[in-house]
Amino acid sequence: MKFCPKCGTLMRPDRKKNVWVCPNCGYEEPITDEDKKNAKITQKVEHKPDEGIIVVEQDVKTLPTTHVICPKCGNDTAYWWEMQTRAGDEPSTIFYKCTKCGYVWRAYE
């Protein structure tokens, strides 16, 4: 992930121009060889509510952790992330991934 140094918005890669582009203010920055080496290619996927849990494919070591009991193994620490999985006027969903067994579950706020 790369954030715009001008406005703080998450920047997106433009592979045709080989630059990072800020969708908010238009700032551009070259994509470095280091960026390419660390990148994981993902596809944009539309999620339907009946398709189950969304699993974020990223290095979980970068996610924050919290004290919560895993319903599968009883471990007391899990990584967490938040996503808007329902309508914009409804609260977001918090996902947890156990640091011990890798089980993923969600909590609706």
TrEMBL record:
<feature type="binding site">
    <location>
        <position position="22"/>
    </location>
    <ligand>
        <name>Zn(2+) 1</name>
    </ligand>
</feature>
<dbReference type="GO" id="GO:0003899">
    <property type="term" value="F:DNA-directed RNA polymerase activity"/>
</dbReference>
<protein>
    <recommendedName>
        <fullName>Transcription factor S</fullName>
    </recommendedName>
</protein>
<dbReference type="GO" id="GO:0003677">
    <property type="term" value="F:DNA binding"/>
</dbReference>
<keyword id="KW-0479">Metal-binding</keyword>
<feature type="binding site">
    <location>
        <position position="7"/>
    </location>
    <ligand>
        <name>Zn(2+) 1</name>
    </ligand>
</feature>
<feature type="binding site">
    <location>
        <position position="70"/>
    </location>
    <ligand>
        <name>Zn(2+) 2</name>
    </ligand>
</feature>
<feature type="domain" description="TFIIS-type">
    <location>
        <begin position="66"/>
        <end position="106"/>
    </location>
</feature>
<feature type="zinc finger region" description="C4-type">
    <location>
        <begin position="4"/>
        <end position="25"/>
    </location>
</feature>
<dbReference type="InterPro" id="IPR012164">
    <property type="entry name" value="Rpa12/Rpb9/Rpc10/TFS"/>
</dbReference>
<dbReference type="InterPro" id="IPR001529">
    <property type="entry name" value="Zn_ribbon_RPB9"/>
</dbReference>
<dbReference type="InterPro" id="IPR006288">
    <property type="entry name" value="TFS"/>
</dbReference>
<feature type="binding site">
    <location>
        <position position="25"/>
    </location>
    <ligand>
        <name>Zn(2+) 1</name>
    </ligand>
</feature>
<comment type="similarity">
    <text>Belongs to the archaeal rpoM/eukaryotic RPA12/RPB9/RPC11 RNA polymerase family.</text>
</comment>
<feature type="binding site">
    <location>
        <position position="98"/>
    </location>
    <ligand>
        <name>Zn(2+) 2</name>
    </ligand>
</feature>
<keyword id="KW-0862">Zinc</keyword>
<keyword id="KW-0238">DNA-binding</keyword>
<dbReference type="Pfam" id="PF02150">
    <property type="entry name" value="Zn_ribbon_RPB9"/>
</dbReference>
<dbReference type="Pfam" id="PF01096">
    <property type="entry name" value="Zn_ribbon_TFIIS"/>
</dbReference>
<keyword id="KW-0805">Transcription regulation</keyword>
<dbReference type="GO" id="GO:0008270">
    <property type="term" value="F:zinc ion binding"/>
</dbReference>
<keyword id="KW-0804">Transcription</keyword>
<feature type="binding site">
    <location>
        <position position="101"/>
    </location>
    <ligand>
        <name>Zn(2+) 2</name>
    </ligand>
</feature>
<dbReference type="InterPro" id="IPR001222">
    <property type="entry name" value="Znf_TFIIS"/>
</dbReference>
<dbReference type="GO" id="GO:0006355">
    <property type="term" value="P:regulation of DNA-templated transcription"/>
</dbReference>
<feature type="binding site">
    <location>
        <position position="4"/>
    </location>
    <ligand>
        <name>Zn(2+) 1</name>
    </ligand>
</feature>
<keyword id="KW-0863">Zinc-finger</keyword>
<feature type="binding site">
    <location>
        <position position="73"/>
    </location>
    <ligand>
        <name>Zn(2+) 2</name>
    </ligand>
</feature>
<dbReference type="GO" id="GO:0006351">
    <property type="term" value="P:DNA-templated transcription"/>
</dbReference>
